[in-house]
Design a protein that fits this description.
Layout (H helix, E strand, L loop, with lengths): L1 H23 L2 H11 L6 H6 L12 H8 L3 H8 L2 E12 L5 E12 L8 E7 L4 E7 L2 E6 L5 E2 L5 H10 L2 H8 L4 E11 L2 E10 L26 H12 L1 E12 L5 E12 L13 E12 L23 H7 L29
Antiparallel strand pairs: 1-2, 1-11, 2-3, 3-4, 4-5, 5-6, 7-8, 8-9, 9-10, 10-11
Amino acid sequence: MSRAVSRLKNSLLVATLSLALPACQDPVDKAAKQRIFSPEAPPQTVTAAAQKLPPEGVADDPAVARRVLGMDAAEVTERLGPHLYTADLVTEWASGAGGSVKLVEKRTLRAGPGGVSGDFHGVMENSRDQGLEVLRVGGKVYARNRYGTFRLRSRDRGIAERTRAELTGALHDFDELFRGRLKLSPQGAGTHEGRSAQRYAVSLAPATPGEATPDAAELPAALNPRNGRDDTSRRRAAFFALREPRSLTGEVWVDAQTSVVLKATLDGRLSVPGDGKGGDAGVGEAELHMTLDSARTEIGKDPRLKPPETFLPDADKPQGIADALDRFGVPRSGPAKPDAGTPPGGAEPDEDDDNN
């Protein structure tokens, strides 16, 4: 009896192994296991930074030119290492009615080692006494408006990546506003901060039929509000749809080793029609004059960034209107619930507000 049971067990074991063997050899199963147990893929920025971009091909290959001119801060840091980025951007509107509006921006980004996840300190200020400052140290993010107090932003880490990209995106924005018509002409080699670079003169390329912003194909169609657009939205839409580049001059220096733009000076003019062509009735043509002066210096120098000495703890967005009423002594209908992280005298303006 015991021998019969043993034989039965052996038969079942052989049958089980024979059924499992083909399953283990299934190529689909093997591929699935390889994907599941393979090492995690590196971030897309790290992969992009490993791509070789020939600096001498910027003038001849539009794809290389777009990659170099539009390279974001994370990839630049991966390629270049620690550095200091500064940019002065001036925009001035002049209308047919004789009025003009001018805005001067100062942008600074001090990038530390560590590449895409490294520390950095970014500051943006303008001539209207507005500004924003963001600091990331050891994975923790601190932010404040120009005259505010730093606040820890543990639940809004995306502000760090957004601010870093905006601070260093002036050259990309310039190219986009001018409908991708930055023409680069080789001017030989040069040296910047002890690094070899390819120099390019910038001019306005001829318009092509059906030209559009380089990223326009990726945008969905605009939605029409039920009650129509307000004047401000209508003017903005008219500007982006009808803007016409008029002139463009300048110079761009591209690092020979990393293909990062080391410095750029641009001066350009755009015009927008009026009188029935998308503009306001009775208003003539408007012109936008823009200048950019940017540079990357202190390359390879570790700024040794530190957290701010004083900062407020992370907290929910202040209650806005209710906090404003508290400031002016207007009592609430219910019991007040003060924010433990809010200083006396009212809530600190959030860095995402319009006054920054």
